[in-house]
Amino acid sequence: MKGIQMARRVYLDHNATAPLLDAARDAMVAALGRPAGNPSSPHAFGGAARLDLESSRREVAALLGGDEHEIVFVSGGTEADNLAIQGSARAWTAAGRAPGHLIASAVEHPAVIESCRYLESTGWRLTLMPVDRAGRVAPSELRAALRSDTALVSIMAANNETGALQPIEELAEVCRAAGIPMHVDAVQAAGRLPLDVRRLGADMVSISAHKMGGPVGIGGLWVKGSRSVKPLLLGGGQEARRRPGTEPVALAAGFAAAVRSARERLADSSIQRLRDRMERELAGAIPGLVVNAAGATRLSNTSSLTLPGVDAEAMVIRMDLAGFAISTGSACSTGAARPSHVLAAMGLNRDQSASTIRVSLGQSTTSDDIETFVPALSAAAAALRGAGVGGKA
Ligand code: PLP
User: Fold this and answer.
1) What is the pTM of this model?
2) Measured by CB atoms within 10 angstroms of the end CB, which terminus of the chain is less buried, N or C?
3) Residues of CATH 3.90.1150.10 domain(s) within the chain?
4) Domain 22-264 is of which CATH architecture?
């Protein structure tokens, strides 16, 4: 930020990462201030660290309505997804079976899709479920895609780009009826809407601390009961033999504090009111604006907006210079914008995808932020529209 003078910055990219909550920072500082100890050590220092860790585990389990013994601490959402999918595949083949069949939705995060693709390269078969215009998988289509050798179905609770919620309970019921386990990537949903893993009917659920104001570097995989998931790393027997490595006690304390704060805010609809107001005002100010997945129930903080004729990358840069942090709707890799696989699966064409931005609000978002953001985005859209998609503006 050096060299750029701005009166104020507004952060509207909470789906990328949420600002660290004071409570999470305080909990980590307190934990780091306690005498060092490895939770696996038998002495008093180790015992104290173990007590800290298990108390954090209880908090995280409570967010999901799960049992504390069912929470595996991992490094984040990416690892939770990898462990759920590849760890299940390893357990499947370790039982003497040939590689089977996996199902995921076409709009999953790369942590899920790439895990499935990797397994596909080793002999597994993969079905990517299509979605409707609002980004949802139809339970009847999932039922039709199940096979006798389907080992796992992985479908996210809420999409990171559009906020669209999947009908998880119905999809899980389809899986349950067929006796097939289901993994749910709830990285964006956890802490933002009530989740009860037993009611959802899932077998594994991934979550990540930094999406809810906790620290980057820790997440959790909830694994139902004694379901077998083989570790992906080789090492000690930590985390019930599912994830070796000395546990990060201070990160877990920060995660637990973020979870506590998220649970207290679950019934708070103020973010939704701000988001809805923002969408209404933008729709009035920007001709042709489309709110993607508007036909689905969505996360209350997320807006995926297509601004026809506007280059989304140019918009993100322009808004950044104006002091607003938003993101493109499409994933950007190695500097080259590719059309978002999520938007493509929902039926948007390349131009529409290249004109889509994501605005994601959070706990720190104020009504002032939205009041200044709406005219700034509207003015930028008018200025960029002349340049067109792919223009140099
Ligand atoms: N799953 C979803 C839906 C996500 O949005 C993300 C991060 O954006 C991840 C998984 C990966 O989480 P992490 O950044 O904690 O590795």
Assistant:
1) 0.95
2) N
3) 10-20+268-387
4) 3-Layer(aba) Sandwich (3.40)
Looking at the predicted structure, is the pLDDT value of residue 138 above 50? Answer: yes
Lookup result for tokens 């899709």? 113
What pLDDT, in 10s, does the model give residues 338-352?
789 999 999 999 999
The Cβ of residue 179 has, within 10 Å, a number of other Cβ atoms equal to 8
pLDDT score, position 339 = 87
Q: Is the dihedral of CA 168, 170, 173, 174 positive or negative?
A: negative
Active site residue 332: yes
Tell me what the pLDDT averaged over the chain comes to. Answer: 94
Q: Quote the CA–CA distance of 200 and 220 in Å, as a whole number.
A: 17
- pLDDT confidence of residue 2: 47
Ligand 1 cavity residues, CB under 6 Å: 76-78, 81, 109, 111, 156, 160, 185, 187-188, 208, 210, 219
Catalytic residue among 193, 325, 332, 337: 332
- Indicate the CATH number for domain 10-20+268-387: 3.90.1150.10
The pLDDT of residue 1 is: 46
CA distance 65 to 194: 10
Strand partners, 168: none
CA 108 to ligand 1: nearest atom: 3
pLDDT attached to residue 331: 56
Answer with the residue of higher pLDDT: 336 or 129: 129
Ligand 1 atom nearest the C-alpha of 156 is 3
Residue 346 near residue 295, CB atoms below 8 Å: no
